[in-house]
Amino acid sequence: MRIESLRPAEHLGNVTIHGVRRFLELDSGAPSLPHLQESREVEMVDQQAISDVEKKMAIILPIKDEDLKVFEGVLSGIPHDCLMIVISNSSKQEVDNFKNEKDIVSRFCRITHRQAIVVHQKNPELAGAIADAGYPELLGKDGLIRSGKAEGMILGIILTMFSGREYVGFIDTDNYIPGAVWEYAKHFATGFNLAQSPYSMVRVLWKYKPKLVGDLYFKRWGRVSEVTNKHLNHLISSKGKFETEIIKTGNAGEHAMSIELAKRLTYGTGYAVETKEIMSILEQFSGILPIEDREVAEEGVEILQTETINPHLHEDKGGDHLIQDMLLPSLAVIYHSPLADESVKKKIENQLAGIEGLENNPEIPQVKLIPPPQKMDLAKFSAVIEKYLPQMVLPDGELISRVARPSRLPSSGQFKKVIYTDLDGTLLSPLTYSYSTALDALRLLKDKELPLVFCSAKTMGEQDLYRNELGIKDPFITENGGAIFIPKDYFRLPFAYDRVAGNYLVIELGMSYKDIRHILKKALAEACTEIENSERAGNIFITSFGDMSVEDVSRLTDLNLKQAELAKQREYSETVHIEGDKRSTNIVLNHIQQNGLEYSFGGRFYEVTGGNDKGKAIKVLNELFRLNFGNIHTFGLGDSENDYSMLETVDSPILVQRPGNKWHKMRLRNPSYVRGVGPEGFSRAVTDIILPME
């Protein structure tokens, strides 16, 4: 897809609000040839990048007694790889509309070979699971989830968290144009590709909003949005020195968020929800008010706005609905915000005084607020709701077909120990690659059923060889965080993954080997030219595994031929061997970084990646462990600088000694140091630290 290049943005502390960007082409074709440069006015996001996000995205479809033909059209517009979550609050009385909706989704899923979760907002089992998980704010006096748009959206966020998806989008089900529905999802995926922060939101501006009231007519924006936008922009202007009109999507029903942002926001009930999302971001993360979540503050929050090509065509529901249900709550969350000064409040009062039916009502009602969904204990919710999945998942039983292990949710106060370990120099001897002195410790871990996750620069083939020899069945992280390989049926609950490789479901985090090789070739050529033209740089010899034969790799690494062959089967990194003086080596490393690649040094070789990160991979895998096991406590075992991000991420970092009986120096929070080089140190870590911890 082609979209306008960056528009002007407003910055409020840690929050960036981007101006509206127009989509120029909904299908930009295959990636351009390298010599064809895009115009500076245009940015292209290729189909593969969009597809990668769609596989990790759930689309929430709220419905309440809508036309079923229109609903069928909406389903047909959702991209195939997105998980559909239908939240219905339809009638179940004389005509069971919910049953009809469920039948339509079931038939659609069978025909199109896809999955959906379909629930009723008043489902008592869902309400019970939410109550058990400690989130009563979503429930009414009858113990069921309250009726309301916001409550349905939050339920959708909870089910997205349960499904393991990374993004959640919202699309109304009263849209007459399936092509517009498809375009909204593409906007979401494109926006997340453009965002720099993991805490991001994409809000869609309809180019036109026709109404079906007698003759069809096209209006540029909705009436409520115009008013809400005006007052949001005035509030933002009041915090700076200049006027702004940056907000154009104050009431955007079609919008999406990263789940990491969605689960942290405070929400307003009813139709205040979309405006309150913006206000919550400003209140919680801009820095104007005290910030409690420092992690989000460091990364920042982005709000991206995009304009559609398709119009949004839906049935008109009348002016009273717009004023009482939408406009008044939207302005109320601005008015009662701690960010609103007297000038903001006065403008809202004057606005409402000029609206027929509200001019004699001096009170602007408080909107009920709902705390962030992350307040809920997701593991408890999952444990309760799992037995009801066959009633909620369509086609029947499809999602739970992967479930092979019983729930092992720890009781309150307990935790599951998860061990992450490096291989070379930690579990394996740095000289012989032997693990023999660690066998007793490995048996103890197996007896205790404690997951042992390899987290190494080694390839999938190399790690699988050791896992098979040792009988280890747990997930593993390859090529310094390039990918996570999870055995099929290992986790009892479903999660998003990128591809299937044999018996593994693979979550890909790194750049492809082909792309790394292409960029690396250019970087090395530039470095060699600079070295040749330098009078102070010495000679240098550079080679990489991709340029070497199996025999060459074997001689250089002391691996046997089988191991050397597996070491060459790289997917997300390249191993580079550099021989030269310090000045020449630094020139090479600088050019690698200048071309957008990263490197790490493992003691003998440099691992070049597109930014692989052991710590990031561990965070992803930790979320799956928590979802399936409840509370966890993580240990990390390593020996070198290459293990820093792993050791920094785990709860209990442990360093084993390197040859010479010394520990590598690195700054970590409360590290433990064990005596013993490689597998000897690994064994002591297991017996002296990991197993005794209660």
Write a brief structural summary.
Keywords: Glycosyltransferase, Hydrolase, Magnesium, Metal-binding, Transferase. This protein is an alpha/beta fold and 694 residues long.
Question: Notable features of this structure?
Answer:
single chain, 694 residues, alpha/beta, Spore Coat Polysaccharide Biosynthesis Protein SpsA, Chain A, Rossmann fold, Threonyl-tRNA Synthetase, Chain A, domain 2, 12-stranded mixed beta sheet, 9-stranded mixed beta sheet, globular, HAD_sf, Mannosyl-3-phosphoglycerate phosphatase, transferase
Total of domains: 3
Number of strands: 29
Q: How large a portion of the residues is in β-strands, by DSSP E?
A: 15-25%
Our Rg estimate from Cα atoms comes to: 28 Å
As for the CATH topology of the largest domain, it is: Spore Coat Polysaccharide Biosynthesis Protein SpsA, Chain A
Biggest sheet features: 12 strands, mixed
> CATH top level of the largest domain?
Alpha Beta
User: What is the count of DSSP helices, taking H or I runs of 4+ residues?
Assistant: 23
CATH homologous superfamily placement of the largest domain: Spore Coat Polysaccharide Biosynthesis Protein SpsA, Chain A
CATH architecture of the largest domain: Alpha-Beta Complex
Low-confidence region ranges: 212-221, 397-412
The chain-level mean pLDDT equals 88
Structural class comes to alpha/beta
Protein name: Mannosyl-3-phosphoglycerate phosphatase
InterPro entries: HAD-like_sf, HAD-SF-IIB-MPGP, HAD-SF_hydro_IIB, HAD_sf, MPG_Pase_thermophiles, Nucleotide-diphossugar_trans, Osmo_MPG_synth
Enzyme class: hydrolase
Organism: Dehalococcoides mccartyi
